[in-house]
TrEMBL record:
InterPro entries: Transp_IS110-like_N, Transpos_IS110, Transposase_20. Residues 294-375 form the Transposase IS116/IS110/IS902 C-terminal domain. It holds the Pfam family Transposase_20. It comes from Pseudonocardia parietis. Residues 11-182 form the Transposase IS110-like N-terminal domain. It comes from the Bacteria. This is Transposase.
Length: 431
């Protein structure tokens, strides 16, 4: 044990919706206190009191003078299985070093000391305190992101959740239409469009849809700001009037009611998605790093906001481009045992970040000649599309890291000039 750890307190916090089981240990692993605290202000106050009662004011080993409150708080290390919520923010605000630990890591740590499979909240608090005491040097403390970045993260995730909710409703609508009105799927190729939702709500059964006029269909398309309305309205009307198999009247009526409900839900979700997207874009543009993110190839305002939200803006969080790539899960991992070595993609990752970086890589193929050439090079090496995109995303993460560190905007020549081989000189004409 390091000498400086003698006066560090290690706290394990096993949280639940309405309470926290906590354990306080000293540097030798001795349990100093254990308690169940209520969620909220009263619980946080009791936790501060519990820690203050056992935190020495001086270091007898080093002969130091009493510390101020900030220095003392920094000698409290807290392990907890989440990084979100008011409780965690209260711990960070108090100056404690907070380590958000993946529940899977805690489960594996618990198995190191017991094979019986016993589990309790108090035992989990003990394991968390033990983990930060013995393995704290290998754990990542919670990022010190700015409040603006935290707000962007909330908006970004809420926006993405609504899109996924809408996708679920669209899939339900598609399955419903297949059951009684498959002609609608031939007429409407996108069930999320405003004109499609409006027309299905107005005419949710085959008979009513066949009575829709081209003028009614065209008017819905105009409200949705479609182009080529005359031809598209004629094609939709023809598809809806095409003879098809039908169900009995009571069954059709039931499905039609379900379709009306689903279209209403989809319309409401689409409206809220648009509202959140506007708020997300506006909040992102106010971030000091927005210009750097927007300068990267393949990053529009929404995807750029997602990337910033998931990476965070703590300048000290990523010591190098490699550490940022590792967190992004774009860099591979190597498994080596004896004479056998294999390279694999990282399957444990931040799924939201991976999705955003994949979208960036896909968009960069069009907006950046250097990115396109790098992707083509990976394909020429025999990689498949997804693997080549992951390699490109890995490279783009490194470029982003360099731009953020230097505070400079993306430059195509600087990013790719050293990787693009000059064209071979033309052969001299024969004399």
């Amino acid at each position: 044990m390091r000498v400086r750890d003698i006066n560090v307190l290690f706290v394990g916090d096993d949280w639940a919706e309405d309470h926290h089981d906590v354990e306080v240990q000293d540097g030798s692993g001795k349990r100093l206190a254990a308690a169940r605290l209520p969620e909220g202000l009263a619980g946080v106050a009791r936790l501060h009191e519990l820690i203050a009662a056992h935190l020495p004011d001086t270091d007898p080993e080093l002969g130091t003078e009493p510390e101020d409150e900030d220095d003392a708080a920094a000698r409290v290390w807290v392990g907890i299985e989440t990084e979100r919520g008011p409780w965690v923010q209260a711990l960070v605000a108090a100056g404690y070093r907070v380590f958000p630990i993946n529940p899977r890591q805690v489960a594996r740590y618990r198995e190191r000391h017991s094979n019986a499979g016993a589990k309790s909240d108090a035992a989990d608090a003990h394991s968390l305190a033990d983990m930060v005491r013995t393995d704290g040097h290998q754990l990542r403390p919670i990022a010190g992101d700015s409040e603006r970045a935290a707000g962007i993260k909330v908006l970004s995730r809420a926006h993405q959740r609504l899109i996924r909710d809408r996708t679920r409703q669209v899939l339900r609508l598609r399955q419903t239409l297949l059951e009684y009105f498959p002609a609608a799927l031939d007429a409407f190729d996108d069930l999320t469009r405003a004109d499609t939702v409006e027309l299905l709500a107005k005419a949710p059964d085959p008979a009513a849809a066949a009575r829709l006029t081209r003028a009614q269909i065209g008017a819905a398309m105009r409200r949705a700001r479609r182009r080529g309305i005359e031809d598209k309205a004629a094609a939709v009307a023809a598809a809806l009037r095409r003879p098809c198999l039908t169900r009995s009247e009571p069954v059709t009526a039931g499905f039609a009611a379900a379709t009306r409900s689903l279209t209403a839900v989809i319309a409401a979700l689409s409206s809220e998605i648009t509202t959140l997207e506007q708020q997300l874009s506006a909040e992102f543009e106010r971030h000091p790093d927005a210009a750097i993110y927007r300068s990267q190839p393949g990053l529009g305002p929404v995807v750029a906001a997602r990337v910033l939200a998931e990476f965070g803006d703590d300048p000290g969080r990523y010591a190098s481009a490699s550490s940022r790539k590792n967190y992004a899960a774009t860099s591979p991992i190597t498994r080596q045992s004896g004479k056998k070595t294999s390279v694999h993609a990282r399957y444990v990752h931040n799924e939201r970040l991976v999705d955003a970086l994949g979208r960036q890589a896909q968009g960069a193929l069009v907006g950046s000649p250097g990115a396109r050439a790098y992707y083509d090079l990976q394909r020429a090496r025999g990689l498949g599309h997804r693997a080549a995109l992951r390699q490109l995303a890995n490279r783009l993460v490194g470029i982003l890291h360099g731009c953020l560190k230097s505070g400079s905007l993306y430059d195509e020549t600087t990013a790719w000039g050293h990787r693009l081989e000059p064209a071979p000189p033309a052969a001299a004409d024969a004399a």
